[in-house]
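Quick one, tokens below. Sequence please?
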């Protein structure tokens, strides 16, 4: 009896250790990290081909916007085609702005559409099953998801500038940039960010701050300092302090900017370097939009395509050079080109786009192979079914 008495606690202790081992395994998942100018995942260099699936939480919702069967099919299709990194929307605000996204995740400060957050849970849990990774942007300089302008409007009790109003779009850009000095608006933003980072996924039980599916938190979609240099100091401070805040509440994940690159820093490399040098910004981003930037006309392909390619190659090269100067990896996380003749029918030829993609993706591949800090691409965007 004495031997049995001694043996029983040994069994109990062994079972306890086994339980602890499992617990420790789940508490210490492998996250994507930065090592110099490279990403690493599971001890190996991490490069990716990705896309923008910004609306993922909308079709993942269990509410009116949802279509989960479709989302599952889309993820299977993406994975089968080697697309393993998705840039997704993690925040939208119900807004005074006429053409903003509706419904929105945040109905008013601290009040959330749980159907859409449930959709984000579902999306991340399904991505986790497929070993896919997400970059989640947390607000928007532009109007389409409410973003910074709506935080200003809430904080100020109204008075928001409508981009379609008489004051013009430039006035809206200036108004959106006042967010960088509006402490009350930033507090509302930080409250939302904390609630998201601390959220527990109802499908896999993981808190967002511990979910290895998440590659990075992105400060904002295309956070410009405004249309001139007036707000550059406030913008730089916001980038640094917000990235620091994210690392405090979530030490596991990377933090990046969501910037367009030098187009988004008043076309000034000095502001690029000073804005993104923060030690709390782990890696860099840039976007590439030839049509929006006046390089390409889909109705005059012959006359504009050569300069489009030349400008794109030069732009990519400049962003890579600046990333090397800062000693950080960089990704081209938005890029696209219209179909021929700017038509939208699915059967419309994509001759110019196909040639363009071959050129710029080939350049990215060759640069990465040569040791440059370019490490991934996300085309815009995945239309799916």
């Amino acid at each position: 009896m004495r031997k049995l008495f001694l043996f029983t606690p040994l069994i109990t202790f062994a079972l306890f250790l086994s339980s602890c081992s499992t617990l420790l395994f789940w508490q210490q998942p492998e996250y994507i990290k930065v090592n110099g100018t490279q990403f690493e995942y599971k001890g190996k260099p991490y490069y990716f081909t990705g896309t923008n699936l910004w609306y993922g939480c909308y079709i993942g919702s269990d509410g009116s916007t949802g279509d989960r069967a479709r989302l599952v099919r889309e993820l299977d299709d993406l994975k089968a085609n080697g697309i393993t990194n998705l840039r997704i929307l993690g925040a939208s605000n119900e807004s005074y702005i006429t053409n903003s996204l509706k419904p929105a995740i945040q109905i008013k400060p601290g009040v959330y559409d749980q159907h859409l957050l449930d959709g984000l849970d579902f999306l991340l849990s399904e991505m986790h099953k497929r070993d896919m990774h997400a970059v989640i942007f947390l607000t928007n300089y532009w109007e389409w998801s409410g973003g910074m302008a709506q935080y200003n409007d809430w904080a100020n009790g109204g008075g928001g500038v409508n981009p379609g109003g008489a004051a013009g779009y430039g006035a809206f850009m200036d108004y959106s940039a006042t967010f960088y000095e509006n402490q009350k608006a930033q507090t509302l933003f930080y409250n939302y960010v904390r609630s998201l980072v601390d959220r527990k996924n109802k499908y896999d039980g993981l808190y967002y701050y511990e979910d290895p599916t998440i590659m990075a938190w992105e400060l904002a979609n295309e956070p410009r300092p405004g249309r001139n240099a007036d707000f550059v100091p406030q913008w730089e401070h916001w980038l640094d302090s917000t990235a620091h805040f994210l690392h405090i509440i979530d030490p596991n994940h990377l933090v990046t900017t969501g910037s367009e690159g030098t187009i988004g820093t008043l076309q000034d490399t000095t502001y690029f370097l000073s804005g993104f040098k923060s030690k709390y910004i782990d890696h860099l981003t840039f976007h590439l939009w030839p049509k929006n930037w006046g390089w390409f006309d889909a109705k005059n392909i012959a006359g504009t395509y050569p300069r489009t390619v030349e400008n794109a190659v030069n732009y990519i090269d400049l962003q890579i050079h600046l990333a090397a100067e800062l000693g950080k990896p960089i990704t081209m996380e938005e890029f696209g080109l219209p179909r021929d003749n700017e038509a939208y029918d699915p059967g419309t030829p994509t001759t110019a786009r196909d040639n363009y993609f071959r050129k710029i993706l080939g350049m990215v591949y060759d640069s990465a192979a040569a040791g440059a800090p370019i490490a991934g691409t996300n085309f815009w965007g995945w239309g799916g079914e």
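Confidence is low (pLDDT under 50) at residues 1-26. The longest helix spans residues 2-27.
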